[in-house]
Amino acid sequence: MTDDTRGARATRFRRLHDDLFLMPNAWDAASARLFAGQAPAIGTSSAAAAAAQGLGDGERIGRSRALAAAASIIEAAGATPVNVDLEAGFGDAPEIVADVVGEAIELGAAGINLEDTDPATGRLRDTRRQTEIVAACAEEIARREPDVVLNARTDVVWNGVGDPADRPGLARERLEAYRRAGATCLFIPGFVPSTGGSADLDAVVGGWGTPVNLLASSGIGPAPEELAAAGVRRISFGSSLYRAALAHAAGVLGAVAGSGDWSALASADDLPYGRLAEVVSGGPGT
């Protein structure tokens, strides 16, 4: 029987980073239970969780609601480790962000995601300030649950900072600073390595010996073994699964309304009512 203690989940999650794995991102309890049956770990998606409550991304959900959403996902996931997306940490002082991280760990988070975009300005935080925040969070993790993975994210590429040719180097500089401050996984969303692009892949994420997280994209070119060789250990999905679900639902509605052909609803049979009831209750096959 799988050990479901907080520490055991964190330990299993850290060990997953020995190899490349996929980490779907959930937005509520039902999606968490569904994905937990298909993946070794799941993450929360700040954008999807906020959108599900009618809110925009960028910490508009607020600290308490974000933690409550994370708590419901952690509970629904059961023994499956959960990485919690805390955006920029709901504060601009290291001690405040570290306190939020501590709350998430107490809720059962096996991993923490922190980004370096200041939600108040939409711009990157000063590197030194963000490094201080990462260091404070690493200390909080060491005090509470040492195996919790601290995933430090830089938005250099995501935000389109500076000249495109300079972004890989700028991103690497920031990630190196966060790694030295105690981050145990490094995340560079928006960086999409191209087919045969092993040189740029190595230039951006190679050589650290620290696990690297990439964001899933239809444009990722290198084969899994090439990604793994460069140090990529996990690929998360962000809000893409939530957006895909909404897009599909809108497409089904449009097909029925436009043609009067009810057969478009057949895709719902892939998750029949009875199976949905099992998923949300944690019943057989979940």
Total beta-strand segments: 11
How does the major sheet shape up? 9 strands, parallel
Q: Would you list the SSEs in sequence order as H and E?
A: HEEHEHHEHEEEHEHEHEHEHH
CATH fold-level assignment of the largest domain: TIM Barrel
Regions with little confidence, pLDDT below 50 for 5+ residues? none
Q: In angstroms, what is the radius of gyration? A: 19 Å
Instruction: State the domain count.
Output: 2
Helix amount, in percent? 40-55%
Q: Rough shape?
A: globular
How does CATH name the architecture of the largest domain? Answer: Alpha-Beta Barrel
Q: What do the pLDDT scores average to?
A: 92
Q: What's the arrangement of strands in the largest beta sheet?
A: 1-11-10-9-8-5-4-3-2
Question: What are the salient characteristics of this protein?
Answer:
nine-stranded parallel sheet, 45% helix, 286 residues, TIM Barrel, 2 domains, 11 strands, two-stranded antiparallel ribbon, globular, alpha/beta
Short description:
With 286 residues, the protein is α/β, with parallel strands linked by helices.
